[in-house]
Structures are given as structure tokens and as C-alpha cells.
Amino acid sequence: MTIYPAIDLKAGRCVRLLQGRADAETVYHDDPVVPAQAWKEAGTKWLHLVDLDGAFEGSSSNLEAVRRIIALGDLRVQLGGGLRNEEAVEAVLDAGVERAIIGTRACAEPDWTRNLIERFGPERIAVGIDARDGKVATKGWVEITETTALDLAREMSDLGVRWIIHTDIATDGAMSGPNLQAQQEMAVAIPDCKLIASGGVTNSQDLEDLNALAANHPNVEGVIVGKSLYEGTIDLGMALETYQ
């Protein structure tokens, strides 16, 4: 099970939000390269970056920070937030991002998603499915649709998507534990996709529970860990040694 340390970028800084709310922001580092270097030294091979400005505004001022993180070397990066046109996807992939995460437009325009998969390949594109009470949220989690997360995931799988990142909004940043039932239901719904679980991971027991889920559902490929790293409730080096 791959562990993806998360770095959320807003105005060039490393922040965390509670349940995706822009008014519930904690700044952890003015320079996001600092935590990136720390997670690299702890042994991670992957980082999960979120461009919050892109997610909320649809445009980004964080690409330079992304480039500086990638320049550390020996790190693979997946990035989401505001990638709502082909040019934006191409720009981040050209900057060295390994996997671009699309969300809002993927929900609205399946043909666009199919075109991205055909152009860049299924290993370079992931679809982020963010859900509140099982319903898909878009545009930085501001708009809740009537589409269920499971239905969207099945549709994406049928289009050729092979990476799904499923975030349970209610648990994200809340330090309350992951929604294991929702993640299990997602794993069962998309057997042909690799699933990365996100939201609520707080301590080593949560990692143990997700690792057990991955043992029963081999398509559960990884887990995103965010606030717990910054609050010190999970030791990344120990987690990597134990679960990866």
C-alpha cells in the first residue's frame, strides 16, 4: 500500500483545510518545499499535491512551488486542483508531475476525460472523486451534485480511467478516522481501477485498518495522509517501514 503524504498549496504556502472549507485554514509552512524535503528524508517516493487556488478559482499561482518540489529529485508527484482544460493538464505534466488528477470537468464531460486518457495514457491521468454523504462534490467541494460517487466511478472505469482517488469530505482534515465502509464500497465498485483512499487518516490504527482493506481488495493501491503528519499523530518514516 503506497502512502502519499499530502501538501496542499494556497498562495504558495503549505496549508490544510478542514473538510475543504476555505474559511477553516491552517498554515503549516510558508515554503512548501520544507515539508516536501522532510517527507523525502522520511523515505517517501510519492507526494500528493493539491492546488487549492486552482480548485477554488480555476486558475493557479502555485506551479512554481510545484516545480521547486519536483526539483528536489527522487520524488514522484501527483497533482490535482483546477485542472479543467487540456492545457492545464499538459502544463503540469510538462513540469514533471507524474499523474494529473482531474475532477470537476471529469464529472461534467466524460468525453473530455476519454480524450485525456487517449492522449496522455491511463497512467498519467487520475480522476479525483470527492463525496459528501455519497454525492459527488465539485469546484473545490463547493457544489454538491446529484451524482453518486459510485456511479461516477463506474462511468470513469468504463471510459478507461485506471486511477481513482476517493476522498470522503466529512472526514477530510477532521482527524476522525477514515470512512472505511465508503472506501470498501468504492473498491468493490471499480475492480479494474486502482483506488487511492483519502480522508480522515489520523493514526497508525487507521493505517492498519486500510492495510487490511487493501489485503482483501488488492485494487486499493494507496492512502493519502495529510493533517496527521503535520500534527505529529503519524510518524511517516515508521508508517512507510510498516505498510509500504
TrEMBL record:
Keyword Cytoplasm among UniProt keywords: yes
Functional pathway: Amino-acid biosynthesis; L-histidine biosynthesis; L-histidine from 5-phospho-alpha-D-ribose 1-diphosphate: step 4/9
GO molecular function, one term: 1-(5-phosphoribosyl)-5-[(5-phosphoribosylamino)methylideneamino]imidazole-4-carboxamide isomerase activity
Cell compartment(s), UniProt: Cytoplasm
Cellular component annotations (GO), alphabetically ordered: cytoplasm
Keyword Transmembrane: no
Cross-referenced Pfam families: His_biosynth (PF00977)
Keywords (A to Z) from UniProt: Amino-acid biosynthesis, Cytoplasm, Histidine biosynthesis, Isomerase
Reaction it catalyzes: 1-(5-phospho-beta-D-ribosyl)-5-[(5-phospho-beta-D-ribosylamino)methylideneamino]imidazole-4-carboxamide = 5-[(5-phospho-1-deoxy-D-ribulos-1-ylimino)methylamino]-1-(5-phospho-beta-D-ribosyl)imidazole-4-carboxamide
Entry EC number(s): 5.3.1.16
Single GO BP term: L-histidine biosynthetic process
Family of the protein in this entry: Belongs to the HisA/HisF family.
Protein known as: 1-(5-phosphoribosyl)-5-[(5-phosphoribosylamino)methylideneamino]imidazole-4-carboxamideisomerase
Species whose genome carries this gene: marine metagenome
